[in-house]
Please model this.
Amino acid sequence: MDKMNHSSAEAEAETIEPLRYLSKGEVAAIETELLRDYRFGQQQLIEIWGQACAIAITKAYPLSSLAKKQPTVLVICGPDQNGSIGLVCARHLRMFEYEPTIYHPKRSSQSLHQDFTVQCEKMDIPFLSYLPTEVQLINDAYNLVIDAMLGPEADCANIKEPYSGILVTLKQIKTPIVSVDVPSGWDVEETSQDGINPEVLISLTAPKKCAASFSGKHFLAGRFLPYDIQKKYELNLPEYPGTDCLIEL
Amino acid sequence: MDKMNHSSAEAEAETIEPLRYLSKGEVAAIETELLRDYRFGQQQLIEIWGQACAIAITKAYPLSSLAKKQPTVLVICGPDQNGSIGLVCARHLRMFEYEPTIYHPKRSSQSLHQDFTVQCEKMDIPFLSYLPTEVQLINDAYNLVIDAMLGPEADCANIKEPYSGILVTLKQIKTPIVSVDVPSGWDVEETSQDGINPEVLISLTAPKKCAASFSGKHFLAGRFLPYDIQKKYELNLPEYPGTDCLIEL
Model:
């Protein structure tokens, strides 16, 4: 029996194709397909992704492993989808007994984004009105910084204030950074980057080209993805264990 | 150290209030508050609940425990919110390697409900066009039946076709039934019921009065519930373990 399992595992291993790393165009095409053809809702996808990010953070940094007395986490949210995911992530972290604080410099006019913001406010999650430029203040106050600023759709060659200033600060802090989907400021398709240096990356749906040489802890969250899309884009996703919504690559 | 933990656990146990079982009015009030004041979206809540139901099913009936060769599950979906939750549950069960089949006798005209339906259709989950009245056919074909028909808002004194007929069938089958939130046909507030007899009940948010004397396996799924609502309605929810979205009561 054991021998049979071995040989079938070997046979399978031979046919396993390597994980695909997506271009910017492929990311957009998959999302369009999910929304238009599969009729997923943005609200639904953002909830799925944000929850998965929070669970990834509990795996990478369990409460018991945090250096500071309080389980503080700073979640920096951008104005678009990545920021909404950060808001959902903060809400779930609160349910997991972490103490998130949100820095959300530019509120979106999109009603969905506003709804996610209200959910956090009503959960008594504090919002910072500005980010200290004094790096030591961040190092002292937070166990972790979650970078949910700029998603794969952002133009990294043209990052404006307040995000360019925040990136300068994030390059200097000693607090570990967890990036959501694409580290803010990185080119989605470039493997060598001189931007921020996250300790953890949580790729959503499938990793992007820029993640191919990422040497930190790398999670993939996107189990909801229909099999037909996985096949069409030849994603060769790994098998998620049990009912887990994410896997460490 | 061990002694200290013991005494603090005892002190805590003294102050633990019993779990609240909700009336129909309280169920509606909590949902209104979630949607209106906390700005949760229906799509978001249904996704959270449906995913939790699928995970509960994997806990109660792991793939390895199923009696039949194929991991078949029949998911019966009603026309309203309970049915939408069933559709999401079926989709997640598919991702967990079960083989769900959906029976959805009355399609809703609500666009959200239709979106959840399309998501299942595009995942190649088969839809039955009618439910066999021959009970043996159901017993032979399915390991489980998921009852996602009538939610707490349904008027159990006035159940119409096709649901009344389906309930007659469900009372006769030997296949174990898993009910979502409230077993279809049960009065939300009555503890003694002569309707269907589910083996598993998955209460959403908080259990309803009818669940107080339920003797089967009982799960509670609703970890997202803001602490202020938990306090306001004195729900006295148990502590969810780790990052689990549900707990067995």
